[in-house]
Structures are given as structure tokens and as C-alpha cells.
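Fold it.
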Amino acid sequence: MKTRWVATLAWVFAPFLLAPAQASDPWWPTEIEVWDPPYNQELKRKPGTYVALEKASKPWRICVSIPHLKDPYWAAVNFALIDEAKRLGIGLRLFEAGGYGNLVVQRGQIKECMDSGADGLIVSGISATGLNDIVEGYSAKGVPVIDMINGLSTTKIAARAGVDFFDTGFAIAKYLRAYHKDTGHSPKVAWFPGPEGAAWVNQADKGFKKGLENSPFQIVTSARGDTGRTTQGKLVAGALEAHKDLDYIVGTTVTADAAVELLRRKGRSEKTKVLAFYYGPGVHRGIRRGNVIAAPTDLQAIQARMSVDLVVRALEGKPHFKHIAPKIIVVDRKNIKKFDATTSLPPKGFRPFFSVNDW
């Protein structure tokens, strides 16, 4: 009930409050990877370029469902969705389920929104399989569904915009191997890939472990949990208590934020270094300050914008990619000044908005 109340207020004031936060420059053309064939499990891809529509042909009504807004990663997604809908001249309602344990809530929110007369749906699923029946049901009725970021196991969708998190996990493992100086001992790593059951977590876990194969690195502890600050903080605290000689903590953006604070309190910042396998405001700030070593970004704001453009293209019967993602970038202190943060972060001071051009 609380989520709906906040959303209602945002719907009322969004048209007035959004104006100062608009992106001024086009986000396209953007280099992308195109899955060929779409949805293949072998990650077969080819390079491509994404060019967005200038405007929609009519004020389509789009529902968007995301897992939560507890992880600042999703604030960038929130901003980009609303901003892109406003640019295209369509209506958009966004619902957040409150956490990865709330599959029933997400299912209910999708139905509630779609029953209001929506034309299309963008979904970032809590579960890889838990929304398949709903998504397939809408697809069967001719409603275009875009699978955004997290990844659903069904292929009965109009399109998918999502980096495979195998790549981000692998990328940070590869970076870690190059970063670590040979000290004559096996570096000890605590690894926190995120919540149980989410497709992106499973893929990140596979990628990270694959990236550390045939290396001296030891994953001495690993645990999964919701990407809320409280949960990740407890996981990190437990790892620090159990392993006094940790060399690295690697995990979600929330993991990294919690780790930086806990290591500072315990006076262990010099001994134990922090990395993340995706990007957010806290990680960005941490890299600039030297508290976080590096993190790859899946350019989540670009993925969100492409998702909005894709659903409009599908509704208008225009040619569109079936399965795409932007190229990931690993950000560290060497390249952060050249990095375009608008691809991965919300504007400074941004607060969640849940609707634009409401119907």
C-alpha cells in the first residue's frame, strides 16, 4: 500500500518536477551487441549500432515493472525510462515490487497496470521463470513485451534489451587478475553475487568464477541475498568476522557501498580492497575517492532507453532488434574522468518518479 501511495504522489507532480532533469543530448547512435540468433544461450553476438526514433506516432500507454528501488542502480533505470517516454511523447507508469522476495507483488502490479488499458509492457523480472506465464499470456494477445535487463527465461517476447551478466562477472574477474600484484600467496576473495533465483545473479556467478579459473585466487566465502543495504551489510559483516585475512570483497553495488563503510570502521581498508560487478552512484563515488578499485557498467540507463524505444517500435510495426545490449565498460580511476556517467547514473539529486503523461 505504501508503494502505491508514493507512486500516486509522483504521478501528480511528475510533469512539473521532471522538467529540470531532462537529458539535453541524444543518447544515440550507440554501439551495441546483437545476439545472432536472438536469445541464444551460447552468447553468439555481432556488433551493431542503435538509432532511436525521434517521436512516437501516438501517445501509447506503457507499463513498466522493476524489482525495487533499494539499489541505486535502479534509480538510473527509473530516470531513463521516464525521460525517454517523455521525449517520445508516450505515457508510462512504473511499478517497483519492493524487493527480490516479492514475486507475488510484482505479478499483481503488472496485472493491475495492464488492466488499466495499457498498450505495451516492459519487465525487469524478479525471477527468471516466475513471470513467464504472465508475459506469454500478454504476448499471445498481441501485446508487445520487452524483457529489460534482468532476463526472463521465456523467448515469447517482442524483444530483449539486456547485457548478459556473465560478461560483467567475467570482466571484473579478469580485471582483478590483472590488478593483483603477485605477493606469493593465494588472494582470498569474498563474493556476493546478489539475490537467489534471479537470472542475472546466476549468470554473474558463472562469469566471475569462470574468470578466476586457473588462477591463484580463492573464493573463501560467498553468499546470496537481496540487494537492500541491510541484507548486504550483514553478509559483508559476517564475511569480515569469519575471515580476518580477506584480500578482496567483490559483489553488487550495494555490497560495495556496505563494504567500504564497514572496512573503514574496522580499520581494514588498506588490507581488503573492494570491487563491484555492476555500476551505481556509490560505486562511482568510491572509484573517484579510491575506496572502490573498479566496476564494469552495463550502461543501465541506455538499456532502459532502448527498452522504451523497442516497445514503441513493436507497437508501430517498425523494424526492431530482437535481442541487444550495449557494450560493457570497466571503469577505474584511470578512465573515470572520460567516462560518460549519464549512461549509468541518474542526475544528481534525482528522486524516483513513477509516471509521465499518465492516462
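The first strand starts at residue 30 and ends at 35.
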